[in-house]
Write a structure and sequence with these properties.
Layout lengths: L5 E7 L11 E2 L2 E7 L9 E10 L3 E10 L12 E2 L15 E2 L6 E2 L4 E10 L4 E9 L2
Antiparallel strand pairs: 1-10, 2-9, 3-9, 4-7, 4-8, 4-10, 5-6, 5-9
Length: 134
């Protein structure tokens, strides 16, 4: 059972549609979820990460793991989960796969999304697949 695939979905919103007169900023970062503490099963391995959007735009997205003791600081990272994605335009309706550098997240660590850029319409989605353990 420990190798069952789990899929999480995170909507990326940025406000309301601007009628093509501007763009919606998606700058900032967010703690997405926490790996179970070692006493409750331990770490997990991220196996796939995809981004989709209903509208075109530009953006840079990257996942990191951060220690469970300092999740709000954003400055301390235990590791880089994915390489930075988004150097080219995001096309509506296309699923973009992230390149996973090191999918391991220590028990008790958080998965942290760093994002910047803009989209014309709200409605981007991030999908993360993982398995428990290595």
């Amino acid at each position: 059972m420990s190798q069952d695939a789990h899929i999480l979905h995170f909507p990326i919103t940025g406000g309301t549609h601007t009628g093509g007169l501007g763009t919606i900023p998606v700058v900032g970062s967010a703690l997405l979820f926490k790996a179970p503490e070692d006493a409750n099963g331990g770490g997990l391995t991220i196996t796939e990460v995809y981004l989709t959007s209903v509208g075109a735009g530009l953006g840079t997205f990257q996942l990191f793991s951060v220690p469970g003791t300092t999740p709000g600081t954003g400055g301390t990272k235990n590791g880089t989960i994915t390489s930075s994605f988004g150097t080219s335009a995001i096309t509506a309706g296309t699923a973009y796969a992230f390149t996973i550098s090191d999918g391991w997240v220590n028990g008790g660590d958080w998965v942290f999304l760093s994002k910047s850029g803009s989209i014309i319409h709200p409605g981007a989605d991030l999908y993360i697949s993982y398995v428990m353990g290595r």
